[in-house]
Amino acid sequence: MNLEEYKGVFVFAQQVDNELSGIALELVGKGKDLAKDLGTEVTAVLIGSQVKGLCTELAEYGADRIIVVDDPELKEYRTEPYAHALAEVIRKYKPEIMLIGATAIGRDLGPRVSARIHTGLTADCTQLDIGDFPINPVPGKEQKHNQLLMTRPAFGGNTIATIACPDFRPQMATVRPGVMQKAPRVEGAQAVIEEFNPGFTPDNKYVEILEIVKAVSDIEDIMDAKILVSGGRGVGSPENFKLLEDLADAVGGTVSCSRAVVDAGWKPKALQVGQTGKTVRPHVYFAVGISGAIQHLAGMEESDIIIAINKDETAPIFDVADYGVVGDLNKIVPMLTEKIKEAKAQK
Amino acid sequence: MDFVLDKKHEMARQLFKEFAEKEVKPLAQEVDETEEFPRVTVDKMVKAGFMGIPVPKEYGGQGCDPLTYTMCVEELSKVCGTTGVIVSAHTSLCCDPIMTFGTEEQKQKYLVPLAKGEKLGAFGLTEPGAGTDAQGQQTKAVLDGDEWVLNGSKCFITNGKEADVYVIFAVTGMVEKRGRMQKEISAFIVEKGTPGFTFGTKEKKMGIRGSSTYELIFQDCRIPKENLLGQQGKGFNIAMHTLDGGRIGIASQALGIAEGALESTIAYVKERKQFGRAIAAFQNTQFQLADMATKVQAAQLLVYKAAVAKATQKSYSVEAAMAKLYAAEVAMEVTTKAVQLHGGYGYTREYEVERMMRDAKITEIYEGTSEVQRMVISSALLK
Amino acid sequence: MKIVVCIKQVPDTKGGVKFNPDGTLDRSAMLAIMNPDDKAGLEAALRLKDQYGAEVTVITMGLPKAEEVLREAMAMGADKGILVTDRVLGGADTWATSQTLAGAIRNLEYDLIITGRQAIDGDTAQVGPQLSEHLNIPVISYAQNIKIDGDSVIVERQYDDRYHVLKAKMPCLITALAELNEPRYMTPGGIFDAYDAEITVWGRANLVDTLDSNLGLKGSPTQIAKASDKVRKGAGEKVVLDPAESVDYIMDKLLTKHVI
Fold first, then answer.
1. What residue of A is the nearest CA neighbor of C213?
2. Best residue in C94, C97, C99, C230 to probe A by mutation, most A CBs within 10 Å?
3. Which chains lie within 8 Å of chain A at 3 or more CB pairs, if any?
4. Which of B135, B164, B253, C93 is at a distance of 20 to 30 A from C41, taking alpha carbons?
């Protein structure tokens, strides 16, 4: 493998129902930073059916170039035609970096593609940097420059590891949604658009979609919320979540929850914060009756302000809370809701 | 001599522990409060194969040894004394006598569904006037054609109303023994739903409150002749043999309760602060815990020894009696100390040691009181 | 039907992890368990066995000690256990691991391969899809519900806001989520049988069509540059007040931080 042949930062611009996923723009934003460090460009790879209309948005959010693979076989996400499309793009264009969102789609597509083209893949990254590998010089070992250093939590968020892929290209990573920042939108920005179709011949690996069932819900995406009022097992019952909903209404926030609450069937999975749920970084995160298992902390500790209310003063949530209140949520939360309403009414 | 469990027993313990923590512990307080039989838990234990652990596979059981069964009752009782005794009464007092004394037909008809857990078992020996003194039996069985006709009542029967199959003892005549006329006792298998077999009052108990403890009433209850268990007139031997095994079950229950109280207390004293430091830092606490742990360990060794003896020896009455005597008294002592170390909180129902202390008491009483165990042990010594 | 289930022995991260003084993970201080997603995969296989009749083979790659999870799987109802263990396999990343498993599984007949979505130590979710690629069979990740229909499987595959009902021809690989089901307990008798059973042990020599250059640390494209204990931001203030004062305290913070 001639590593020198591989150039440019590529990102997989995930779209669903002809709508770009948030992660697509986040990756373009991050890809732009990395490309700047490497003195190269960021290329978005857009795969789907009749998706060319999305190029404008990708360009305005910073993509220098867009490779569009457009084919009727790609209408709905399926592992095989998408893996084929992306693998062929990589074979043809030889990027040095390939970023994919660590979504339900990306974490299926990424490993299949990395296995096909024989390169390493680092999962669920929360930080990406350009640097040297080994980080510090090691006698007798070549220190390579301009490597992608991929940082990710492991062991349920207990440890973090930085991974490199020095001898294979592209350096591939899936990136956790909600962690990287979009670049500011520049109206009218243009990108070079290239169309590419490697041809699709269904084989045994093409699965048949019998039915698509969309979850009917008006659930707000907790990853977009500026204020989250999050409840844990300590809330006690599904009915008692009313207290949190009232507080969320008063303060202008959204309700989310811990895994225990989802496991108990009190709230849907879409509201779950944490390692196996969503990573959130709101301005304010109220942790109400949440003990703060490490898997939960991994999903919310980047919040700007964390306010914890818990009756157990030894709860680990207090280790990350900016403001911790030891006490009974059943008494504190309703009073707080009233006070906030009063304060807002006075304004 | 090897005091280390082998890998399969270690894994079995892990299984029982995990099951107890996940399925039994969350319900323990509620089972005690409501005094309701934990049918949901029993159903789960059936699926997991806990209802026929020492019964051979060809009779629907798990084909494990008494030690595995002992550990099951122990781990269940660590978190819930009620659940422990349900398994113990079913296995030791109903499966075991049918296994040991039943005919092949009886085993196929009753043991197989019992060991699979499709049916729950119980054992009726005790009567209002015949507890420790088995000779005080009043329940009678008279052969009438092809049927035995039972009349009388049994009391304090564990799994009472919830069981499907009952091993019942009744007087079938008088025999001369050492120049004295004595009651001839025989054992029978009685199915729930047999006409003439009804339930009396439910006992309101101090502890093991979710266990279904009932009076059984027999009024002209006719059962098939072939439901005689063992030979006619051998009922007393069957009862004594069965209780030897039962005592290992109750010893395991007592051991589990003591262990549960000890664990709970160790956690509590590390958290609870008085005079600015955890009460675990006080020497009194430390010494109390040391005594508790030592006695629990001694009890465990006696109980496991009895379980191994059941598998390897013809007679294990003394081992079983010692295990039950000691484990029950340790359970009472350790739970009492556990409440004391919890202070005022230990006396409230918010803390499980309160329940454990109430649950512990029965282990000194049923399946032979501590006094009976001392009789068994001393009579073997002075033989 | 023949089902192969890939399982992994992992340290139990529930309740935190333990570290050696030098900052590396102290695996010996943590309980080793069957990875939860894998256990759900095994349960799914055992349900197919109950429903349709199947032979379930569990396979794991790891240290000799990993035999424990094979016994556990057999105590739950799996029919055979295969341990793939060899010094040259150590230090493998997901690429090398999936190469190894593929090399081992090429020895077996199978209609279905089930893996857990991800292991709780690595959280990568990569080995399943990579394995399917090496074996050139379809993959369905994140399975919620699995049914057999003739020579095909019908699987509900979960996405963020929807699920697809997919049909794939067997042989096929499915990755299972812990949420898929509630795994059964072992049975006491199953444990006794599992310890009496033979476990097949395979080493490097048993791997079919596998290059040395794709195995172990040497065959791993990714390399660790740095590993460390997660640095958390320190705790802030913690107050114990009566409810009214607590509310005033929070209000004060919300106002000074201009939240309201």
1. A118
2. C230
3. C
4. C93
Domain housing C90? 2-214
Query: Which segments of B71-213 are extended strands (E)?
Result: 121-124, 140-144, 147-157, 165-177, 180-191, 197-202
Cα–Cα distance between B25 and A174 in angstroms, integer? 41
Q: Comparing C-alpha atoms, which of A105, A157, A160 is closest to residue A299?
A: A157
CA distances from B65 to B68, B246, B248, C192 (A): 6, 15, 13, 10
Task: Determine contact, residues A151/A162, Cβ cutoff 8 Å.
Answer: yes
Query: Contact C195/B7, CB-based, under 8 Å?
Result: yes
Is C49 within a domain? Answer: yes
Residues C91, B271: Cα–Cα separation, whole Å: 41
Residue C250 lies in a domain: no
Q: Residue B69's closest chain C neighbor by CA?
A: C188
**Could you read off the pLDDT of B206-247 as tens digits, one per residue?**
999 999 999 999 999 999 999 999 999 999 999 999 999 999
| pTM given for the model | 0.85
In a domain, C251, yes or no: no
Which residues in B have their CB inside 8 Å of a CB on C? Answer: 7-8, 11-12, 15, 18-19, 47-50, 53, 57, 61-64, 68, 72
Chains touching chain C, criterion 3+ CB pairs below 8 Å: A, B
Put simply, the answer to whether B48 touches C195 (Cβ < 8 Å) is no
Domain with residue C46: its CATH number is 3.40.50.620
Structural contact between residues A90 and A170, judged by C-beta atoms closer than 8 angstroms: yes
Cα–Cα distance, A47 to C113 (Å, whole number): 29
Chain B's closest residue to C77, CA to CA, is B48
CB-nearest partner of C239 from A162, A306, A325: A325
Domain count, chain C: 1
A323 and C253 in contact by Cβ < 8 A? yes
Q: Which of B347, B344, B341, B351 is nearest to B278 (CA)?
A: B341
pLDDT tens string for chain B (383 positions)? 788 999 999 999 999 999 999 999 999 999 999 999 999 999 999 999 999 999 999 999 999 999 999 999 999 999 999 999 999 999 999 999 999 999 999 999 999 999 999 999 999 999 988 877 777 899 999 999 999 999 999 999 999 999 999 999 999 999 988 888 889 999 999 999 999 999 999 999 999 999 999 999 999 999 999 999 999 999 999 999 999 999 999 999 999 999 999 999 999 999 888 888 889 999 999 999 999 999 999 999 999 999 999 999 999 999 999 999 999 999 999 999 999 999 999 999 989 999 999 999 999 999 999 999 999 999 999 98
Which of C65, C181, C185, C240 is the best residue to mutate to test the B interface, defined by the most B CB atoms within 10 Å of its own CB?
C185
Apex CA C3: angle with CA C1 and CA C9, to 5°?
165
Task: Let me know: does C130 contact C90? Beta carbons within 8 Å.
Answer: no
Q: Quote the minimal CA–CA distance from C36 to chain B in Å.
A: 14
pLDDT, residue C233, reads: 63
Measured at the alpha carbon of residue A292, what is the angle toward residues A287 and A297, in degrees to the nearest 5?
Answer: 90
Tell me if ipTM is over 0.90. Answer: yes
| pLDDT tens digits along B181-198 | 889 999 999 999 999 999
Angle CA A4–A8–A10, to nearest 5: 130
Q: Which of C185, C187, C192 sits opposite B8 (nearest CB)?
A: C192
List the catalytic residues of B. Answer: 367
Rounded to whole angstroms, how far apart are CA atoms A77 and A84? 12
> Is residue C6, in this structure, part of any structural domain at all?
yes
Query: Per-residue pLDDT tens for B19-60?
Result: 999 999 999 999 999 999 999 999 999 999 999 999 999 999
